[in-house]
Amino acid sequence: MTRLGIALFTALMATQTHAGDVVRVAATGSVGEVMDRLEGAVTGAGATVFARIDHGAGAESVGMEIGAAQLLVFGNPALGTPAMQQDPLAGLYLPLKVLAYEDAAGAVWLAYEEPSDTFGELAIPADAEVLAKMSGALGKLTSAAAGG
After folding, report:
1. Signal: is it a keyword of this entry (predicted)?
2. Which residue has the higher pLDDT, 2 or 33?
């Protein structure tokens, strides 16, 4: 591995954590800025954005506060359809979702569930190519959105 490859791997591991089956990626900028970058990366990759949900605004609308938090719901039939062909119940978990939020310390994170965990109870093998593709896409998209 080249020095650049080692440096990039080290930087990625320093900004990515796993909490159970949830991957958290440290991001720079506000939640809105990070979500704008994520939405741009998703559409730039040819996927469709189905919804952008502002949880923070929802909480404020009922007089409560949770801080900045937005969820992007997106997908690509070329990735999702093979999962649903293997098990139609995959449709319960699709399209994919990524959360951008600010924690209590003011740090901004992107979070998503690993597809192998999301679909773990279904008739889709953990080593299925479709899950590896989804995982790779989520990793690339969140890395692009993280900034830095």
Report:
1. yes
2. 33
Helix (H) or strand (E) holding 120: none
Residue 123 lies in a domain: yes
Residue 5 lies in a domain: no
Note the pLDDT of residue 21: 85
Would residue 68 count as lying in a domain? yes
Is 56 a member of any domain? yes
Looking at residue 26, its pLDDT comes to: 98
* CATH code: domain of residue 94: 3.30.310.70
Q: How many domains does the chain have?
A: 1
3-class secondary structure, 33:
helix
* Percent over 70 (pLDDT), the chain: 86
Spell out the long-range contacts of 129-133 with Cβ–Cβ below 8 A and sequence spacing 24 or more: 129/82, 130/79, 130/82, 130/83, 130/86, 131/83, 133/79
Domain range enclosing 92: 17-146
Cα–Cα dist 136/45, whole Å: 12
β-bridge mates for residue 72, sequence order: 52, 98
